[in-house]
Write a structure and sequence with these properties.
It is a single chain. By secondary structure, the protein is α+β, with helices and mostly antiparallel strands. Strands 1-2-3-6 form a four-stranded antiparallel beta sheet. The chain is built from five helices and six strands.
């Protein structure tokens, strides 16, 4: 099936995502987000903001299962990820290099295939405060070409 689209409205938008913690340590990855037409993007962003608002009002800030599921549904792949494996027996850390989750090979005990690699990485990144806020900003930018803070101010 053929699909016609303008160059700036490809089915996937690839964005660099950078995170920094309180100590000043930095890291970055590249994420491929799904792209939608404007009307659908606006609706998705409104749904996400409503989800966050309801969570906050219910006092369920730490339980972000629904919000994480929403974010995960927007992500197609991750590139240039460098998670660390810690071996408690040897007390050593080993940095993995995952150039593209779509091409990830099975890694015993961590993931079985490319899809489960993406899921495992998203779980890691979404459980990290610096990464989670960066992912939300990137997702918002992917949806409407604006930062999350800018969109929040409008509502």
């Amino acid at each position: 099936m053929k699909q016609l689209y303008v160059k700036l409205q490809t089915p996937i938008i690839e964005l660099p995502v950078k995170a920094k913690d309180s100590s000043g340590a930095k890291d970055s990855i590249v994420i491929g987000f799904k792209r939608y037409k404007i009307e659908e993007s606006e609706k998705l962003l409104q749904d996400f903001q409503e989800l966050l608002k309801n969570q906050l009002e219910a006092g369920e800030v730490s339980d972000s299962t629904e919000a994480n599921t929403f974010i995960k549904s927007m992500v197609v792949y991750i590139k240039q990820a460098k998670p660390v494996i810690y071996d408690s027996e040897t007390e050593k850390e080993v940095e993995l290099s995952i150039m593209d989750t779509r091409k990830a090979k099975p890694n015993e005990g961590l993931w079985e295939d490319a899809d489960s690699c993406l899921d495992a990485l998203l779980e890691l990144y979404l459980s990290s405060a610096p990464w989670r806020s960066s992912l939300i900003n990137a997702m918002t930018k992917a949806l409407l070409n604006v930062n999350y803070e800018e969109e929040s101010l409008k509502n």
